[in-house]
Automatic annotation (TrEMBL):
GO terms for molecular function: ABC-type ferric iron transporter activity; ATP binding; ATP hydrolysis activity. The lineage of its organism: Bacteria, Bacillati, Bacillota, Bacilli, Lactobacillales. This is Sugar ABC transporter ATP-binding component. GO terms for cellular component: ATP-binding cassette (ABC) transporter complex, substrate-binding subunit-containing. SUPFAM superfamilies: MOP-like, P-loop containing nucleoside triphosphate hydrolases. The keyword RNA-binding does not apply. InterPro entries: AAA+_ATPase (IPR003593), ABC_transporter-like_ATP-bd (IPR003439), ABC_transporter-like_CS (IPR017871), ABC_transpr_FbpC (IPR015853), ABC_transpr_MalK/UgpC-like (IPR047641), Mo/tungstate-bd_C_term_dom (IPR008995), NA-bd_OB-fold (IPR012340), P-loop_NTPase (IPR027417). Keywords: ATP-binding, Cell membrane, Membrane, Nucleotide-binding, Translocase, Transport. The keyword Ribonucleoprotein does not apply. Gene3D superfamilies: 2.40.50.100, Nucleic acid-binding proteins, P-loop containing nucleotide triphosphate hydrolases. Residues 7-240 form the ABC transporter domain. It comes from the Bacteria.
């Protein structure tokens, strides 16, 4: 109960009528006032969870508590939730002001018009849409429509705000701008927010913490930086990071980790990072492109096939064991396409996983 577990989800399961198990025993909690991102690939169950929290879907089993009280049997309208959908869902025949006021002028708790207008104006100001009050939705840009949808979701002063991919219909530049605005708006209002996205960068930039799902199961529930530095497993290491992590097939044998063209002494690894003793056999060594860098004493000789410029850095592309791999270097590094160079890995930043994805180092 209390502020640390303002939203609590316990052993939630959802099996759809066709037998598909979309959510498999999911438990997590959200602190009061936090903005938490539910992250994961398409189909991992993010929307299903939001809809269960909102009461639009009922769970097959498990419990949901808001501020310590179970709400699974509470009607959606009594859960004090604001919901922002991907496609805005504004009423086209109403002005911006009428759209924002709408939740306050319907239902049994409706307010006198003057009061509703005053509250709507407060949230329109926070969402920076005061000057659009008389416009119709079709005259607005995607970013403006999304601000209207957010103001409308907040106007009933809900306890919890749910946002399902609210930025996905916006172009790349606007996404960056609006995501910052959303974060400062929900922090100013102080509302506990669950924000669904499939975009890891979006989640890392705005989430107080991130819950990463795959196939209806939580893979990691953690602060953003730990997804980079301490991924729970192979899936997490591969889902988070840009450019994507490199994966090399290796064999542990004879006190060494052996790959095509390089080997590492097991004794040179940080023994404290082993999660358990590992027998000889096949593993996957994963290393982020920023942790495998040109070094004349490096143990991995490669041929630079291509170089991609990404803003302040460059990605060197090379082939290893039949697969493309990458090293991230700064702009000034004196390397060009066609060079033969050596790469060195930071051994305290590599990960080892079993072939079925369990991280062991
Ligand atoms: N009504 C339904 N009946 C059967 N299966 C469903 C239903 N709704 C969703 N699913 C399935 O459940 C899984 C989770 O769906 P959900 O919409 O929660 O995923 P998501 O992570 O939000 O994905 P996306 O980002 O694509 O919206 C998917 O495999 C989806 O096909």
């Amino acid at each position: 109960m209390g502020n640390d577990k303002f939203v609590e989800v316990k052993n939630l399961k959802k099996v759809y009528n066709n037998g598909h198990e979309a959510i498999k025993d999911v438990s997590f909690s959200v602190k009061k006032g936090d903005l938490v991102c539910l992250l994961g690939p398409s189909g991992c169950g993010k929307t299903t969870i939001l809809n269960i929290l909102a009461g639009l879907l009922s769970p097959t089993s498990g419990d949901i508590l808001f501020d310590g009280k179970s709400v699974v049997k509470t009607a959606p309208k009594d859960r004090h939730i604001g919901y922002v959908f991907q496609n805005y869902s504004l009423y086209p025949h109403m002005s911006v002001l009428q759209n924002v006021m709408f939740p306050l002028v319907v239902g049994k708790n409706k307010k006198p018009k003057a009061e509703a207008k005053k509250i709507a104006e407060k949230y329109m100001k926070l969402a920076q849409i005061s000057d659009l009050a008389d416009q119709r939705p079709h005259n607005l840009s995607g970013g403006q429509q999304q601000r209207v949808a957010i103001a409308r979701a907040l106007v009933g002063e809900p306890k919890i705000l749910l946002m399902d991919e609210p930025l996905s219909n916006l172009d790349a530049r606007l996404r960056l701008k609006i995501r910052e605005e959303i974060r400062s708006l929900v922090k100013e209002v102080g509302i506990t927010t669950l924000f669904v996205t499939h975009d890891q960068e979006e989640a890392l930039s705005i989430g107080d913490k991130i819950i990463l799902f795959n196939d209806g199961v939580i893979q990691q529930d953690d602060l953003g930086q730990n997804f980079y530095l301490k991924p729970n497993n192979y899936f997490v290491a591969n889902f988070v990071g840009n450019p994507v992590i490199n994966n090399f097939k290796v064999k542990k044998d004879d006190g060494k980790i052996k790959a095509k063209d390089f080997e590492i002494n097991v004794d040179d690894l940080d023994q404290d990072r082993f999660k358990r003793e590992i027998p000889d056999g096949d593993y996957i060594l994963s290393v982020r492109p920023e942790n495998i860098l040109p070094d004349e004493n490096g143990g991995l000789p490669v041929h630079v096939d291509d170089i991609e410029l990404i803003g302040r850095e460059r990605i060197l592309k090379f082939e290893h064991d039949g697969k493309q791999a990458r090293s991230l270097v700064d702009l000034e590094a004196p390397i060009k396409v066609g060079d033969d160079i050596k790469l060195k890995m930071r051994l305290d930043r590599i990960f080892l996983s079993t072939p079925d994805g369990e991280r062991v180092y």
